[in-house]
Amino acid sequence: QARSALGSALDKATGTLLYNAAARLRDPKHLGFLVGYIARRQILTDLQLSAALEYLRSHPLEPLDTADFERACGVGVCVTPEQIEEAVEAVIGEHRAELLAERYHFNMGLLMGEARSRLRWADGKTIKNEVDLQVLHLLGPKTEADLEKKPKAAKARPAPAEKQKSAVVENGEVGTETRSLLEQLRGEALKFHKPGENYKTEGYVVTPNTMALLKQHLAITGGQVRTRFPPEPNGILHIGHAKAINFNFGYAKANGGVCFLRYDDTNPEKEEEKYFTGIREMVEWLGYQPYAVTHASDYFDQLYSWALELIRRGQAYVCHQKVEEIKGHNPPPSPWRDRPVEESLLLFEDMRKGKFGEGEATLRMKLVMEDGKMDPVAYRVKFTPHHRTGDKWCIYPTYDYTHCLCDSIEHITHSLCTKEFQARRSSYFWLCNALDVYCPVQWEYGRLNLLYTVVSKRKIIRLVETGAVRDWDDPRLFTLTALRRRGFPPEAINNFCARVGVTVAQATMEPHLLEACAREVLNEQAPRAMAVLEPLKVTITNFPAPKALEVLVPNFPADESRGFHKVPFKSTIYIEETDFREEADKSYKRLAPGQLVGLRHAGYVIAVQNVIKDTSGRVIELEVTCTKSDASEKPKAFIHWVSEPVVCEVRLYERLFLHKNPEDPSEVPGGFLSDLNPDSLRVVHNAMVDHSVLTAQPFDKFQFERLGYFSVDPDSEEGKIFFNRTVTLKEDPGKA
Questions:
Q1: Which CATH number fits the domain 537-637, given the four candidates 2.40.240.10, 2.40.30.110, 3.40.630.30, 3.20.20.140?
Q2: Which of 345, 415, 438, 598 has the highest count of CB atoms within 10 angstroms of its CB?
C-alpha cells in the first residue's frame, strides 16, 4: 500500500512506522487509512503513530472524523527550532538554581520531559540536543567532580506497617483490609478496560448499536465497576473458588465498585437448598458482602422472550438431534438448521408446553465457537420442578445462553471467569450482539489448583460414599467448609490467593504454601494454651503448698498486654511421654534421670527421683522433686505440662493422598481411590488440655504450645471438646 504512493524506495523510518502500525493495530479495517497517512508522510513519528492508534481504538465506528483524527495525532503541526529553543530555555530557567547546585548530577531527563510536555509533537532528538546545548552554555564543560558517580542516598527503611484486620466489605466500600492485598489481587486486571470503554478490549465486537448501548449502560451504572461471582448451586465451594471470590469481589472493591452473588440455577436436577446457603455463607466467611444476591431464575421470563426474538431474527432453531449425536468433535450438522422461523417458533412453544419429552428437542443457536463446537444448545427440556419457580417451566436455559445475558441484565462491566471459558468468549459476544443488548467484556484468568487433593464434585462424592472421608467438610479436603472446620482463618485463604496472584496462566500450588499463610495469621490470632497428647503422670513429692497454686500464662507471650489466663499447678501434673527418657544422649535436652527440666510459666524446675513402670516395663509415672527456678541451676529446656486438665479428643490430620497428582493415571494408575493415605487421620481420644479452653466455642482457635495450631470442632458438646489440628508450628521439611 505504501509503495503505491511512494514507489519502491521506502526509507527506514517509514518502514519502521509501517511495521509498528501493522503489529499494533487491532482492527485491520483501519489499516489502509493509517498506511495512507504514513505513506503521505503526515504521520512521521512513533509518538504520532501511538496517538493515531489510540484514536482509532477509542473511535471504533465509521465514518471517522478526519479533521478530529488529524488534530488528535498532530498531523500538519510544525514545531520550529525557535519554539524548541524557547521551551527548553523556559524549563532550564525554572530549574536554574538546582542545576547550578547539582551541575551534571542533575536529572536531565526531567528537563526533556517538561519540554516535551510543552511541545507535544516536537522531535525528541531535537529537544535532547537543545537541552544538551543550553546546559553546556549554563554550566560549561564537565569537571572531574562532575564525572564522579553521585553517591547513592541511603534508603530510609519504612516503619513496619501496622497489621490491619480484614473487615467485611459492603457494597464495594473499602474496609480495613490493606491496600497492598487489593493491588496484588488486581494482577492481570491492571490491563482491564474502564467502564464504558468495552470497545477498547481486543476481540470485542463493535456493532452500529454498540456506542449507544454503552452510553445507556453508563447512564445506569454511573461508570461504576460491576463484577459478579456466579457459582452453580450443586456443590460446595473449594479452594479454587476462593480465588474467584477474591478476584471478583476484590477487583470491584479495589475500584470502588460492587459485586453481585448470582446463583446459576439453570439445572434443577442437581440443585439443593444446602448449596445455596453454603455458598453465601462461605462468601461472607471470606469477608465479603454481596451488593445483591440474584439468581439466573430471576430472569427466566426475559430469557424466554429473548429466545423467541433470537428465533425471529433467524439466529436460532429447534433441533431434534439426540444429545449423543451432537457430543464430541465434528458432530454431523443438524438437518433442521434451516427450518423456517415460524416452524421453530411453534415448536419452541410446544417445548415450553411440555409436548416434547426430555432429549426430543432443543433450541440451538446458529454460531461456531472457538473450539469448533457448532450451534450450542440454548434450551433443553427437563421435567424437574425448580426450587424457586416450581412447575412453571419444563424448559431450562443452558450456561452458554444464560450467562452473558444475565451479565447484560445486571450491567456487569467485567465478566471474570477461568481460562476454560475462553472457548465461549465468541458466543458470549455473539449472543449479546445478535439481540442488540449491552455486551459486557469477558476476561479469563488461570485456575488455582492444589497438589495432593481432588476438588471435583463427582470425586468428592465418591470419597464420601466409600467412607474415605466423612462429608464435604471433612478437614482433609480442600473445600472451603473443610478448611474452615480444620481451623484455617479466612484471612489466611485470602492472603494465599493474593500471593498466588491473578494471572492468565494456571497455578498449581503446594498445600504447604497455604499452611504457611495459616501460620502467619494464627500466630497473631490464636491464644496460647498448654495441651498434652500422650500424657505421662508426674507426681511432685515436695510440692511447696498444701493446695493448688495458680499460674498466670500469657495469651500471647510476645505481647503480654493482650492478657493472661490462669491454670492450676498441683502436686500431680502431666507431661508428654516424649519429654522423658530413661537414657539421654548428648543431643537430648529434656527430662531424664540426672537431667533437670523447667516447667513453662510455672517458675519451677523438676528433677527425677523415681521411675514407676507397669508389668510390661512401660513407664507409667515419674516421682520428681521441684525447685524454684531462681534457686536452681539453669535447665537445658522448658517443657509444657497440664494439671487438673480437661480431657479432650484431638484429631491429627495429614495429606489425604500419597501422590501429588492423584487424578493423573501416569502417576496413580489405579485411580485416585487407590492413592489414599492410610495415616491421613490419627485420633487421640484422651488428650489433656488446660482449663483455659473450657468455654471455647466451635471454630475457636488456639496454639497448643510446642504442638501446633488447633481449632474447636463443631462435633464438640457439653462435657467433651473435640479439637482439629490445623497446622503444626513449623513446616515439615519432608512436605516442602
A1: 2.40.240.10
A2: 415
